[in-house]
Design brief:
This protein is mostly helical. It has one domain. Helices cover 80% and strands 0% of the residues. Helix 1 runs antiparallel to helix 3 and helix 1 runs antiparallel to helix 7.
């Protein structure tokens, strides 16, 4: 049974927000030395990628409006399947530099879908 596309958007949005909350006030040194923090951030990135992967199958038109969605999904695959070679600096960089835009897009899409279904 296919889930409502809003559910995937919400899952991705909440996971992205969690990443920002986890790294708030943290430095690279904090991240690099804290296994629990890095594991939590990676897990939330996995959820973002998985949710967007499902969204791409259930609502390709919506997914096409998300910048770099293919790269986000591919990043999830690296975290899951090549876990032994994950570049922590890259994960940190994504958490610091790319999430604000993704969150903004996901919020907009979710608002638009909610408004159109009323």
């Amino acid at each position: 049974m296919q889930r409502d596309p809003r559910t995937y958007l919400w899952d991705a949005l909440e996971a992205a927000r969690r990443i920002l909350a986890f790294v708030d006030g943290k430095s690279w040194d904090d991240y690099a030395s804290d296994l629990m923090l890095s594991s939590a951030v990676e897990r939330q990135f996995e959820i973002v990628g998985e949710a967007l992967s499902h969204l791409s199958r259930s609502s390709p038109d919506t997914t096409a409006r998300i910048p770099d969605v293919a790269r986000i999904i591919a990043f999830r695959n690296v975290l899951i399947h090549r876990y032994a070679s994950v570049d922590s600096a890259l994960v940190w960089s994504f958490a610091q530099e790319r999430l604000d835009v993704l969150i903004e897009v996901l919020e907009t899409l979710l608002q638009e879908i909610n408004a159109s279904s009323q």
